Amino acid sequence: MPLFSWLAAAAIALSSITTTVAAAEFKVFSVGDGDTIRVTGTTGANKTTVRLACIDAPETSQAPYGNDARQALEGKLAIGTEVSLRIKATDRYGRTVAEVLKGTTNINQALVQSGVAFVYWKYIEGCDRETYSRLENEARLKNLGVWAVPGDIQRPWDYRRGRKSSGSGANRYRCKEVESWAKAQELLKQGHSYLDRDGDGEACGLLVGKP
Predict the structure, then answer these.
(1) Segments forming the whole domain that contains residue 113
(2) Alpha helices, DSSP H only, in the chain?
(3) Is residue 116 part of a domain?
(4) Confidence band (pLDDT; 50, 70, 90) for 144?
(5) How many domains are contained in the chain?
(6) Is residue 84 part of a domain?
(7) 51 an active-site residue?
(8) Is residue 179 part of a domain?
(9) Is 166 within the bounds of a domain?
(10) Is 95 a catalytic residue?
(11) What is the distance between the alpha carbons of residues 41 and 29, in angstroms, rounded to a whole number?
(12) Which is more confidently placed, 170 or 172?
């Protein structure tokens, strides 16, 4: 069965509160931003976009915090790293929503623990709420990452909402005009769904590899 079909079937079969699934091995193909990666099967076929579940990292345009989050994720998941997924759902963009495991390390939790991502409380169902809460509180008390900023930073979900309400979504973009794959994924999350022409949850796929 093709990788994407397997992922879709697994996502449908699992309830939203499932926290464990049979381990499936994948390889990291690319890192989009602080909470989005692409994976392939271990043979390198069938690329799939994965949105890290239950966390929300600053947007790329929330400089410098968005870039910090992406670099932190790249540091934890180098290209070619083998990972397994705890699949939670498929989001409205067609991305697989999952916790990503590198061996026994939960990468989603590690990002929260290091202070480069927030717990996404609106979508915490299906994850270990107690552990995520504890890790975020520890990062805040230690002034790690975003928690070291005096006065705090705007939460990414509020930031996206503000950009939409300000009319920034009125502009239309063409893939050849977008400077990077990561920027294209950010635009997709902001509502520019026309950039995902084939409906695979990835905007401007031909930009992969463009910094």
Answers:
(1) 3-153
(2) 3-13, 65-76, 107-113, 129-141, 156-165, 181-189
(3) yes
(4) very high
(5) 1
(6) yes
(7) yes
(8) no
(9) no
(10) yes
(11) 9
(12) 172
Is the model more confident about 5 or about 48?
48
Q: What is the pLDDT of residue 69?
A: 96
Task: Identify whether the C-beta of residue 57 lies closer than 8 Å to the C-beta of residue 117.
Answer: yes
What mean pLDDT comes out for the span 127-153? 95
Question: ∠203-45-37 over CA atoms, to 5°?
Answer: 40
Catalytic: which of 38, 70, 95, 160?
95
| pLDDT mean across residues, the chain | 82
Dihedral (C-alpha) 146, 91, 31, 65: value to the nearest 10 degrees?
-20
pTM score of the predicted model: 0.70
Q: Report how far residue 190's alpha carbon sits from residue 151's, in angstroms, rounded to the nearest whole number.
A: 25
Question: Is residue 176 scored above 60 in pLDDT?
Answer: yes
Residue 174 annotated to the active site: no
* Higher pLDDT among residues 195 and 91, named by residue: 91
CATH number at residue 33: 2.40.50.90
- Which is the catalytic residue, given 51, 70, 86, 160? 51
3-state DSSP: the chain helix, strand, coil percent, rounded to 5? Answer: 40, 20, 40
Q: How far apart are CA 190 and CA 167, in angstroms?
A: 11
